[in-house]
């Protein structure tokens, strides 16, 4: 019986490339669905029997971390392999603590994706060697400082979403259009974010969002 896989990445060329590799080299791996963002992945999860999601971390609408958490909340047995270009230690820590089963660096994905899927399908973990070195170093075992945990927990889901868009360079009007809010409401949320985080400069907000994995370059 094959392993049913869904590829989730907002870049069609990335999905096509991975799909071609799986079709060529992945014995009994079946690509049964593709999605361009987290919301589409959640829709697929309702109608299909999925064994593994190969999930890009940086996507519009709903980023990879939020998508992984939503998929596993819906079904705790869900197996997810994260596909990312980031090997920052704080970021790796955050991702692995969501409970994903694999972490592939995009630079190595073509060489590792088949093996990663097979190992995760067998109930094992798979990490790109560079990520594995970070884990072995003992960094992941260190919990995030309590202050950071408290700060992040203060933000509502909507505020995190707006912070992500701010960090990605969208204007208040563009954010309002995306979220179907008034510009004034966006400004209210922005002021609330700054007050809760005690951050009052745009550049520092962007740094915070990138550091904590709320937004990605």
Keywords:
alpha/beta, Rossmann fold, Arc Repressor Mutant, subunit A, 2 domains, 6 strands, globular
What would you say this structure looks like, in words?
The chain is 54% helix and 14% strand. It folds into two domains: 3-136, 3-Layer(aba) Sandwich (Rossmann fold), CATH 3.40.50; 146-211, Arc Repressor Mutant, subunit A (Orthogonal Bundle), CATH 1.10.10. Strand 1, helix 1 (12-25) and strand 2 (29-35) form a beta-alpha-beta unit. Mean pLDDT is 84; it is low at 144-148. By secondary structure, the protein is of the alpha/beta class.
Beta strands, count:
6
Query: Mean pLDDT across all residues, rounded?
Result: 84
Radius of gyration: 18 Å
CATH class of the largest domain: Alpha Beta
Query: How many distinct domains?
Result: 2
How much of the residues is beta strand, in percent?
5-15%
What is the structural class?
alpha/beta
What's a concise summary of this model?
Helix content is 54%, strand content 14%.
């Amino acid at each position: 019986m094959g392993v049913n896989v869904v590829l989730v990445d907002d870049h069609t060329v990335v999905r096509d490339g991975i799909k071609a590799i799986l079709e060529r080299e992945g014995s009994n791996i079946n690509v049964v669905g593709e999605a361009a963002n987290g919301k589409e992945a959640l829709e697929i999860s309702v109608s299909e029997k999925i064994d593994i999601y190969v999930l890009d971390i940086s996507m519009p609408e709903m980023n990879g971390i939020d998508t992984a958490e939503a998929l596993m909340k819906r079904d705790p047995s869900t197996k997810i392999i994260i596909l990312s270009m980031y090997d920052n230690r704080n970021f790796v820590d955050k991702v692995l603590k969501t409970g994903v089963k694999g972490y592939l660096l995009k630079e190595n994905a073509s060489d590792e994706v088949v093996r990663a899927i097979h190992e995760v399908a067998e109930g094992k973990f798979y990490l790109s060697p560079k990520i594995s070195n970070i884990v072995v170093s003992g960094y992941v075992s260190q919990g995030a400082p309590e202050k950071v945990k408290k700060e992040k927990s203060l933000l509502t889901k909507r505020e995190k979403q707006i912070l992500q868009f701010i960090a990605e360079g969208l204007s208040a009007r563009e954010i309002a259009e995306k979220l179907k809010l008034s510009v004034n409401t966006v400004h209210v949320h922005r002021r609330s974010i700054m007050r809760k985080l005690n951050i009052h400069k745009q550049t520092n907000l962007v740094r915070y969002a990138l550091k904590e994995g709320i937004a990605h370059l």
